[in-house]
From TrEMBL:
Keywords: Hydrolase, Magnesium, Manganese, Metal-binding. The active site is at Y108, D152 (proton donor/acceptor), H255 (proton acceptor). Mg(2+) binds at N7, E35, D152, N154, D254, H255. GO terms for biological process: DNA repair. One of its GO terms (molecular function) is metal ion binding. This is Exodeoxyribonuclease-3.
Length: 267
């Protein structure tokens, strides 16, 4: 079972720059997308009707913003948009599918901005979502299921997760309280960051690079795209890596796909 997550930074733009070709060539069984930024009717036909895929699209009520999706080779047994939040369920930030023995979710956590309403929104989302993560894993365990929540979490957890951490300690995405929240996802809710588990001492591997300057060429990035798995599922993970493009010209998003390979224990 191969699961990939990627923030496409606008599916219509990405489709013109290489996403369609990437989707046709990927060996993933499930692909989670974030920042789709399109209503279902606005999706390019080759994306909306991609051969061999079953898709759940969750656009935001606010047009041109957010939007997530889950694409799977196997038809889902059940699907869900939102996580039971009165404030956030129509914001295009969460969708999940159930496959045999496995729940896969796509998350686009708000990015926030210090000193603004956007940061307050992010904090409200985080508070509600931690409760959901805990409940989701408990329900799955009761049903004998495993869970992986994939997506753009918009938080770098550790100093090794962004190149210029010293300059970003007071910026959204690397605030002490955001990092502490992500620690709670791991320690209290009991999820495993599978990429970090496979690269415990590495700087990065980064999954997002600003389009400004030469951030990509200098590998001056952030690791904010995670696959957070339940322990038993994480124990079957044999590989976890970032699909970093070979060159700046080959990028179709400012994020790169992040992929994990899970073994037979996932089924």
């Amino acid at each position: 079972m191969i699961v990939t997550t990627v923030n496409v930074n606008g599916i219509r733009a990405a489709a013109k720059k290489g996403f369609v070709e990437w989707l046709a060539s990927t060996s993933a069984d499930v692909v989670c997308l974030q920042e789709v930024r399109a209503e279902t009717a606005q999706l390019p036909a080759e994306v909306r009707d991609a051969a061999g895929w079953h898709a759940v699209w969750a656009p935001a009520a606010a047009k041109g913003r957010a939007g997530v999706a889950v694409l799977s080779r196997t038809a889902p047994q059940a699907t869900r948009i939102g996580f039971g939040s009165a404030e956030f369920d129509d914001s295009g930030r969460y969708a999940e599918i159930e496959l045999p023995g496995l729940t896969v979710a796509s998350l686009y956590l708000p990015s926030g901005e210090v000193g603004t309403d956007r940061q307050d929104e992010k904090e409200r989302f985080m508070a509600e979502f931690l409760t959901h993560l805990t409940d989701l894993k408990a329900r799955a365990a009761a049903d004998g299921r495993e869970v992986v929540v994939c997506g753009d979490w918009n938080i770098a957890h550790r100093e090794a997760d962004l190149k210029n951490w010293k300059a970003n300690q007071k910026n959204a995405g690397f605030l002490p309280e955001e990092r502490a929240w992500l620690t709670r996802v791991l320690d209290e809710a009991g999820y495993v960051d599978v990429v970090r588990a496979h690269h415990p001492e590495q700087e990065g591997p980064y999954s997002w690079w600003s389009y400004r300057g030469r951030a990509f060429d200098n590998d001056s990035g952030w690791r904010i795209d995670y696959l957070m798995a339940s322990q038993k599922l994480a124990d079957t993970c044999t590989e976890a890596y970032v699909e970093r493009p070979a060159s700046h010209a080959e990028r179709w998003s400012d994020h790169a796909p992040v992929t994990a390979v899970f073994g037979t224990g996932a089924h």
